[in-house]
Write a structure and sequence with these properties.
alpha+beta; three-stranded mixed β-sheet; 3 strands; 11% strand
Length: 119
């Protein structure tokens, strides 16, 4: 559910203070934060914010196109390792004999065999 427009974007207070401090001193340091729920505002443009993903901090360089999005969108929490079925098929294909004797009647493309014409 979207946040009310009259409230404005949500940014955690401690993160807002850190970014405003960097802006006043004209510094470009990496800011570590656990606040994945904070919205990216125009004050953050040009800064690198290290967002925690539950295991480590992922550095996110903020650009204009990111305004209005949440910091957590740019720090994925899950690692995709691939589909188990596909990995099993590739493993089985690697163990198949090189001549393809086991698949003598199967078509080369791996699809279904064409239907025989009806007489």
């Amino acid at each position: 559910m979207a946040r009310s427009l009259k409230k404005g974007p949500f940014v955690d207070g401690h993160l807002r203070e850190k970014v405003e401090g960097l802006n006043t001193r004209n510094e470009k340091k990496v800011v570590k934060t656990w606040s994945r729920r904070s919205t990216i505002v125009p004050d953050m443009i040009g800064h690198t914010i290290a967002v925690h993903n539950g295991k480590k901090f992922i550095p996110v360089y903020v650009t204009e196109q990111m305004i209005g999005h949440k910091l957590g969108e740019f720090s994925p929490t899950r690692t995709f390792k691939g589909h188990a079925v596909k990995a099993a098929l590739e493993k089985a294909a690697g163990a198949a004999p090189a001549g393809g004797a086991a698949l003598a009647g199967a078509p080369a493309g791996g699809g279904a065999a064409p239907a025989a014409p009806k007489a």
